[in-house]
Design a protein that fits this description.
41% of the residues lie in helices and 10% in strands. It has 492 residues and is an alpha/beta fold. The longest helix is centred in the first third of the chain and has 32 residues.
Length: 492
């Protein structure tokens, strides 16, 4: 198998699809093939017969076929079924990693860590032992998950026990870390994209008038908007605008952002089709949620969907419009480790992180930023495709910085809230990629971390003010807003 075939693609090829359907590992073919491999007494001859599955092969297991199989939230039965599958798949993947490191440790000191010797590794006894472990665990995992799935199907779905909030948050974290993996393996833990009402129930009521939808960020859930100390942003919006309906989007943050954007766009189209009395839709997105909202708007405009005509305001809180600092640093560290002896295989573990996390590197919201690539990556920053803001929609950007005072420096701007730089959150870049939003539509909050953007009282008050104004004031002629811990509305 060529290296290019081992690389990740966001759509599953026929070969990979058949591979997953039959639940057979690639090495299974060796059990039924040549069984006449001679045993050699010479150490070097045995090394020549060794092979390891390259860790790159693991990457294709994470491919997201783009189709969501679940349409209802994860239940308790789904939780245990998904964990059973994950547990066995975890053993398989750890086995692959150990074998890859084993191969490198053995071959590199002997000067045989090259293509010829690596291609000969599969015919050896060591590779067959690793293959047996994988084959057994895959079989056990398939059967165990099937038993739990059969048990779930025999239950009355109306009495399916929902997940407690603590487990719900855990499931969303798992989706953020390996969401595309869960979708590809049809794991019951894969979260579908759904809307919740302000009471935490699935949206099923008749809707009319103005709708505000809050979109959470990476590894978070619709529950993340609620604060234990005080009422959250959704409550503040409802109290300030009693005639407005607040909804919460819940989705798999481990999938490609552009896939989530397309799904969100279709969900909103279905929403207005089912509730034609909706007069206005406002989108408020935190972190990745801001990118998913932008992606939905981009594809709605591309596909001429009429729900976009009802969008009044877009507000993003700490969204990495031009990439996240942490993902860029992580990718750089991975590249450095890959060049170290004995660490090449270990460095490839970074490729196992979800596609959603990888998309945060440069804030990629379009399929074109990754669909033409062979590896699980995105186009470099200078080559990504522009995705401007739709006209006619009032857009507001919120950034934050960990320091509590206004201090102009490159370091402060770069570090920003610890995850996203100030410039990235405000959509500021070169002319091709810059998101042209008036300074009066931008706010920088000092002394607020990335996560606390959704809980900060100052941020909450600013968002409510923008929504209440609803585009009536001419913010374009006003200066940028700078907010400090002891000054709620200081503009410089």
């Amino acid at each position: 198998m060529s290296r290019s075939n081992l690389f990740y693609n966001d759509s599953v090829s026929d070969d990979i699809a058949n591979h997953n359907t039959n639940n057979q590992h690639e090495l299974a073919a060796h059990f039924a093939s040549d069984n006449t491999v001679p045993l050699h007494s010479d150490l070097y001859e045995q090394i020549d017969q060794l092979e390891a599955i390259d860790v790159d092969d693991l990457v294709k297991l994470l491919a997201d076929d783009g189709n969501e199989t679940a349409i209802t939230p994860v239940s308790m039965t789904d939780f245990f079924e998904g964990l059973a599958q994950l547990a066995t798949m975890g053993v398989v993947e750890v086995t692959d990693i150990v074998e890859a490191i084993h191969r490198e440790v053995i071959l590199r000191p002997l000067g045989r860590f090259n293509e010829r010797h690596l291609l000969n590794w599969p015919r050896g006894i060591t590779a067959r032992i690793y293959g047996t472990i994988r084959h057994v665990m895959l079989t056990v995992g398939k059967n165990l998950a099937s038993v739990l799935r059969l048990y779930k199907n025999t239950l009355n779905q109306k009495t399916a026990q929902p997940l407690p909030d603590t487990l719900k948050k855990l499931v969303n974290v798992l989706n953020g870390v390996m969401g595309d993996h869960l979708v590809n393996h049809q794991n019951a833990l894969a979260i579908p994209m759904v809307l919740y009402d302000i009471e935490g129930n699935l949206q099923c009521q008749a809707l009319s008038g103005r709708i505000v939808i809050l979109c959470h960020g990476l590894c978070m859930s619709h529950l993340s908007w609620q604060s234990q100390e005080h009422k959250g942003l959704g409550d503040a919006i409802s109290q300030s605008q009693p005639d407005t309906t607040v909804l919460y989007l819940d989705y798999n943050t481990g999938r490609r952002i552009s896939r989530s954007g397309r799904n969100f766009s279709q969900l909103l189209q279905d929403l207005v089709d089912s509730h034609p009395d909706i007069s206005q839709i406002d989108l408020v997105g935190h972190s990745m949620g801001g990118l998913v909202s932008r992606s939905a708007l981009f594809y709605a405009e591309q596909e001429h969907l009429d729900w976009i005509m009802r969008v009044g305001n877009l507000i993003t809180l700490g969204a990495p419009h031009h990439g996240a600092v942490l993902e860029r640093i992580g990718n750089h560290v991975q590249d450095v480790i890959a060049k170290l002896p004995f660490a090449g295989s270990l460095a490839k573990l970074g490729d196992m992180r979800s596609a959603g996390i990888i998309d945060l590197r440069h804030g990629s919201i379009r399929d074109a930023d990754w669909s033409a690539l062979e590896g699980r990556s995105v186009l470099p920053q200078d080559f990504r495709h522009p995705a401007g803001l739709p006209s006619g929609i009032k857009t507001y950007f919120v950034a934050s910085a960990l320091i509590e005072t206004h201090y102009e420096s490159k370091v402060t701007s770069f570090l920003g809230d610890g995850l996203v730089s100030v410039a990235s959150a405000l959509g500021e870049d070169d002319e091709e990629h810059a998101l042209f939003v008036p300074d009066g539509h931008k706010a920088v909050f000092y002394g607020v971390s990335h996560v606390n953007l959704i809980h900060s009282r100052r941020v909450r008050e600013q968002v409510v003010e923008w929504l209440l104004d609803n585009g009536h004031s001419d913010y374009a002629d006003k200066p940028r807003i700078y907010s400090y811990p002891r000054s709620l509305a200081l503009a410089l």
